[in-house]
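Journal club prep, shared notes

We agreed each person brings one worked example of a sequence with its structure written out as tokens. Mine is AIDA protein. I'm keeping it raw so we can talk through how to read the token line rather than staring at a rendered picture. Sequence first:
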Amino acid sequence: QKTIAKIATCLELRSAALQSAQSQDEFKLEDLKKLEPILKNILTYNKEFPFDVQPVPLRKILAPGEEEHLEFEEDDEEGGAGAGSPDSFPARVPGTLLPRLPSEPGMTLLTINIEKIGLKDAGQCIDPYITVSVKDLNGIDLTPVQDTPVALRKEDTYVHFNVDIEIQKHIERLTKGAAIFFEFKHYKPKKRFTSTKCFAFMEMDEIKPGAIVIELYKKPTDFKRKKLQLLTKKPLYLHLHQTLHKE
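Then the structure, token by token:
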């Protein structure tokens, strides 16, 4: 078990090296090949492990999308079901914003500025960012998912972003009942994964120019909007500003 856990660490180091923009590979392909004889003789292998690595903690291996339905113990007051990526090395740096679509006559594009989010423990959130998606009533993506960069700053009970999201579909082409979701995520060092802390959403009738504040709900993110629970009784919100562009 220890050897397998160390191999898992090496695989994650290799994965992080492949996804890193820096030229120097921390964990090279040649290194990875040294693990092959160990894997082939895993039941009888008793030599010293070739790399000085800490074993990955035993954990459930998640199928794609399964993390949204997992329940983790929570150390915050709200508790509830957790959602997070199982990555021990958060190699995927948030910040996958897409440019505005070309304008079309008679069609409307939407830019949403994510100003800030109010949280009672805002200052304790590590590398917070927001994942933005547009879903239909069945929770199916209607546009590519976008991640904001990590927040600009944390101040009192607010995490400030001040970042523009360009919705990747003309408003007129969004299906009836669609909604725009905002999932607030942060890194949890004890559990070594990025967790969804809470989420908010905006429905089509809320698309109008100007400022809007929307309520925060407990995770896991309910894309079908069937079992919504407010994050807290306190008045905490996601603050947005909408701009409509019509040709």
